Amino acid sequence: MEIIKILHETPNYLVISKPVGIAVHPGADRESYTIHHWLLQKYPEIEKLPWKTKNRIGIIHRLDKDTSGIMLLAKTPEALDFFQDQFRARKVEKYYTALVFGKLKPAHGFIDVLIKRDPKDRKRQKAEMIDFGFDEAEKKNSSTEYWVKKTYNYEGQVLSLLLVRIYTGRKHQIRTHMKFEGTPVMGDSLYFTKPSRRLSRELGLNRQFLHATKLKIKDFETKKPIEFEDKLSQDLQKVLDNLSTLQL
Asked: For the domain 90-248, what is the CATH code?
């Protein structure tokens, strides 16, 4: 596992670059090392504070285990409540970098569909334009905005590098939306097509090409907007470098 890098820190919170392959908090596999464990090891004194939920101390939001990038963590219960309120009110701007199979049209657009758990596979989410067959308690609106930043030609196929903003925080939202559009995230082992999986393997992608790049939020101390950025992880940057070389 890569070292967890601290990008910004105050007495009340910190911003980290989450490596790929580490979950945010304990799930079904209780023995795995998580961001939650790392936080308590690094700041053992915060465990004594009056947290409402002890098994997720400091966890403001989450990223998938195989998604890398920027994460915000709280060091005090007050900071946790302050930031989580912004996430609930959808006042946080979250941007990701993704490489997808195929070409999205238009080059800038929105994906607004319903998301629910896939009844055929409980590990997956499913997106639909209409709510036919959706259980009222499960269906959730979801909204994603994307910009095509660059395209690559690889073995006769187009790959698109995207900047993506999510307006809702549904489970697997970007991955589900991109599969719905017919342009699955490269390297995704859950939402893929046979061609996307084959090319991902050829490119040496062992995980989804998805990185949390930028976060805009109101600062706890100053109460003013603040922005954090995290450059692409080395494994994903290497894939882009290789693709760029092939274009020459």
From this structure: 3.30.2350.10
pLDDT of residue 134: 45
Task: Map tokens 């601290």 to a residue.
Answer: 6
Q: Where residue 231 falls among pLDDT bands split at 50, 70, 90?
A: very high
Is 90-248 the same fold as 1-89? yes
Q: Confidence class of residue 141 from pLDDT cuts 50, 70 and 90? A: confident
One-character DSSP codes across 51-82: -S-GGGTTB-S---TT-EEEEEEESSHHHHHH
CB 78 within 8 Å of CB 17 = no
What separation in angstroms does the CA of 247 have from each of 22, 138, 157, 242, 244?
A: 33, 44, 12, 9, 5
Pairwise CA distance, residues 98 & 186, whole Å = 8
Provide the token pair at 17: 């670059």
Quick one: 1-89 is in which CATH superfamily? Answer: Pseudouridine synthase (3.30.2350.10)
From first CA to last CA, the distance across the chain in angstroms is 33
Tell me the C-alpha distance between 217 and 90, whole Å: 10
> Is pLDDT at 137 greater than 50 in this prediction?
no
Nearest to 70 by CA among 188, 211, 218, 221: 211
pLDDT per position as a tens digit, 183-217: 999 999 999 999 999 999 999 999 999 999 999 99
Please give the average per-residue pLDDT across 159-169, as a whole number: 95
CA distance readout (Å), 159 to 109, 152, 162, 181: 17, 5, 10, 14
Contacts of 125 (CB under 8 A, 6+ apart): 115, 116, 117, 118, 170, 171, 172, 173, 175, 176
64 is catalytic: yes
